[in-house]
Amino acid sequence: xxxxxxxxxxxxxxxxxxxxxxxxxxxxxxxxxxxxxxxxxxxxxxxxxxxxxxxxxxxxxxxxxxxxxxxxxxxxxxxxx
Length: 81
Description:
Layout: E1 5-9, H1 16-26, E2 33-38, H2 43-54, E3 57-64, E4 71-77
Parallel strand pairs: 1-2
Antiparallel strand pairs: 2-4, 3-4
C-alpha cells in the first residue's frame, strides 16, 4: 500500500505509539497516508480507538510474524478537515 510518511514506533509501549502517531499526522496534510510500525500488542486496539475518536481513517492493519518480535503495520489516512 502506498503511503506518504513512515513512522517507526517499534519497541515503544502505550501510550508512546499513539503520541508519535499524533505527531506524525500533524506533519502531513489532510488526505495523506501515514504508515506506522509498532510492536506493542495493545496498539491494535489503541489505534482502532484513536481513529474512531479523531476521525482519521484506518485503511489497513497487518501483522508481520516473520520478524523476531511480532510487528503491527498500520496505514492511517489523515482526516480531511
